[in-house]
Specification:
Structural class: alpha+beta
Number of helices: 8
CATH topology of the largest domain: Butyryl-CoA Dehydrogenase, subunit A, domain 3
Number of domains: 2
Bound molecules: flavin-adenine dinucleotide
CATH class of the largest domain: Mainly Alpha
Order of helices and strands: HHHEEEEEEEEHEEHHHH
Largest sheet: 4 strands, mixed
């Protein structure tokens, strides 16, 4: 699939449930990583089950004390015999509640920052791997959020899927794609909410006529439709650049910045347009709203993305 098509699939899935869509794409991202870095070893062993959904995987960077500032990761990989021993703790990981395998980012040399970071494929059933629950909003149930402790978990040399020097560069490359599809997913949630509100407004009567026949009511939907269109154009631009192999750092950051805040605003407006009906469990407005706030943190928080965009506008010395 082109990246444009992938983003459209995720847009559609997120309209039903952002968490389930994230769970699926995060597992498949691991499949892609194994194929790229271990095409003859881990890929043939793991991909058939990952792609069929018989097994589930996740990517673990975040730790209890470290989120945005990845250089401070404390999970340590120490050489042991011909392999590595991993110790540390990860949290807020999609799929970690039930994953069979985890790509764990760990520091191989204390104090080396992102240059010392490596990625390991860890069997979640290995001795020393202990799951920890993350008790959060029920709106995130379908994400399988969880954490785990690594207590001297042994990894063979071939389980180091990305060595130091490669791991961080690979994350930065992959994160532009993730930012773009998260933006697409935010648009998908707004598109779904807009369709629901529009259909509801045609049948719900107030003051002797359907809601859609009240100008003030339908203007709310017009505002949402216009903001959604802007978000979708930013997503389409970033997707096209990815498909062309062009640099997409600023475009992906802008698409996610705009789409997350647009979705936070417009889902609130559309919920209001539904009246009390919008709070019923059969509608996803509240679930979607919580998801847009999660989307603004995962794969680079809003602050990180603003800094990314700001770097593009820095003046060079001597310029005015
Ligand atoms: C639903 C959900 C799913 C997630 N899934 C995963 C996953 O699968 N794998 C994984 O590894 N992680 C995952 N995460 C973690 C996510 O990547 C982190 O939440 C994110 O990196 C931010 O880290 P933090 O929450 O520790 O916030 P912090 O880094 O502690 O930041 C707190 C706040 O301060 C702001 N901030 C930080 N630094 C600065 C700065 N320099 N200037 C201004 N503001 C700043 C941040 O934007 C944020 O608003 C998930 C999170 C959520 C909510």
């Amino acid at each position: 699939m082109s990246f444009t098509d992938t983003a459209q699939v995720l847009h559609r899935l997120a309209g039903a449930d952002f968490g389930a869509a994230m769970a699926l794409v995060n597992s498949h991202n691991v499949a892609t990583l194994l194929l790229r870095y271990s095409p003859d070893g881990l890929a043939p062993a793991c991909l058939p089950d990952l792609l069929s959904g018989r097994t589930v995987a996740c990517t673990a960077l975040t730790e209890p004390d470290t989120g945005s500032d990845l250089a401070q990761l404390k999970t340590l990989a120490s050489p042991s015999g011909d392999g590595w021993l991993l110790s540390g703790e990860k949290t807020w990981i999609i799929n970690a509640a039930h994953a069979d395998g985890v790509v764990v980012y760990a520091q191989t040399k204390a104090g080396a920052g992102v240059k010392g970071m490596a990625a390991f494929w860890v069997d979640a059933h290995a001795p020393g791997f202990e799951r920890r629950p993350v008790s959060s909003s029920g709106a995130f149930n379908s994400m399988g959020l969880g954490g785990f402790v690594l207590n001297q978990v042994f990894c063979k040399p071939e389980q180091m899927v990305c060595p130091p020097g490669v791991a961080f560069a690979d994350i930065m490359d992959g994160i532009n794609r993730a930012r773009t599809y998260v933006a697409a997913m935010c648009c998908g949630m707004v598109a779904q909410a807009l369709a629901t509100a529009s259909a509801y407004g045609q049948q719900r009567q107030a003051f002797g006529k359907p809601l859609t026949q009240h100008q003030g009511w339908r203007w709310q939907l017009a505002q949402a439709a216009t903001a959604l269109k802007a978000g979708e154009l930013l997503v389409a631009d970033a997707c096209a650049r990815i498909d062309q192999g062009a640099d997409v750092q600023a475009e992906a950051a802008q698409a996610k910045l705009y789409a997350t805040s647009m979705a936070q605003t417009q889902l609130g407006e559309l919920l209001h347009a539904m009246g009390a009906e919008g709070f019923l469990d059969r509608h996803p407005f509240l679930r979607h709203l919580a998801a847009t706030h999660a989307a603004a943190l995962a794969d680079g928080s809003t602050a990180m993305l603003l800094e990314r965009v700001a770097q593009n506008f820095r003046l060079k010395p001597g310029e005015s």
